[in-house]
Amino acid sequence: AQSVTQPDIHITVSEGASLELRCNYSYGATPYLFWYVQSPGQGLQLLLKYFSGDTLVQGIKGFEAEFKRSQSSFNLRKPSVHWSDAAEYFCAVGAPLGGSYIPTFGRGTSLIVHP
Amino acid sequence: EPEVTQTPSHQVTQMGQEVILRCVPISNHLYFYWYRQILGQKVEFLVSFYNNEISEKSEIFDDQFSVERPDGSNFTLKIRSTKLEDSAMYFCASKGGGYYEQYFGPGTRLTVT
Q1: SS3 A33
Q2: Which residue is closest to A38 within chain B, CA to CA?
Q3: For position A54, which CATH number holds?
Q4: DSSP label at residue A31
Q5: B5-112, what's its fold?
Q6: How far apart are CA B2 and CA B76, in angstroms?
Q7: What is the pLDDT along chain B (113 residues), one digit of tens a residue?
Q8: Which of B50, B104, B108, B109 to mutate to test the interface with A (most CBs of A within 10 A)?
Q9: Residue B43 in contact with partner chain A when CB distance is under 8 A
Q10: CB-CB: which of B44, B91, B97 is closest to A44?
């Protein structure tokens, strides 16, 4: 069964600083990988996804992530954080299932942005 | 942009009562899902629904839970006899054909007292 580890429960950065959120997964084959963001009281919004191809994936809001098979990682990065990026970030791994997939989510990393 | 909607946003119920959580998926989507998130914990898969039947369910989705697509637009999750531990945020999601992203609704916060 697949699993996801987000080792950082909280991350605090200053506005304008760079950001990297860590995600490690366990899955026997090439996974589908996702990063979602959840703002307070909101649902989950997909930031980016990796299905195949280029291992550096660009997403919305200036985020990117790199799939590293050798490290079983899919870390999320942003070169310059904005105060509005403060939210909960979830990494997920999905196993193909017919025409669908079921994502397994990590516990999330809470991003705090200082002015 | 089309979006998944859920009603109500917050539901308070007493233990043992039945609740129905409602979702309107994106109109041309074919796959429908329910997830839950207990406060402070990870999002957990409950059930997926395709072609008018359950295609996959987790061990959480026991006999107390059921899903239905009563018409062409709604997708519901019923909990027959709620327990305190059912208190959580419940998310609906939908997806089109093929391996594309699931779109999540804003969630229904269920509080069982």
Answers
A1: strand
A2: B106
A3: 2.60.40.10
A4: P
A5: Immunoglobulin-like (2.60.40)
A6: 19
A7: 778 999 999 999 999 999 999 999 999 899 999 999 998 888 999 999 999 999 999 999 999 999 999 887 899 999 999 999 999 999 999 998 776 788 999 999 999 99
A8: B104
A9: yes
A10: B91
Do A104 and B45 form a contact (C-beta atoms < 8 A)?
yes
Q: Which residues form the domain of A99?
A: 3-114
The contacts of residue B77 (CB under 8 Å, 6+ apart) are B20, B21, B23, B34, B46, B47, B65, B66, B67, B90, B92
CA distance A78 to chain B (A): 21
Q: How far is A34 from chain B (nearest CA, A)?
A: 9
Q: How far apart are CA B23 and CA A23, in angstroms?
A: 30
What pLDDT is recorded for position A28? 76
SS3 state at B85: helix
Strand partners, A10: A110
Number of domains in chain A: 1
**8 Å CB contact of A102 and B48:** yes
Tokens of A89: 């970030």
Q: What distance in Å separates the CA atoms of residue A55 and residue A36, rounded to the nearest whole number?
A: 18
Phi, psi of A61 (to 5 degrees): 60, 25
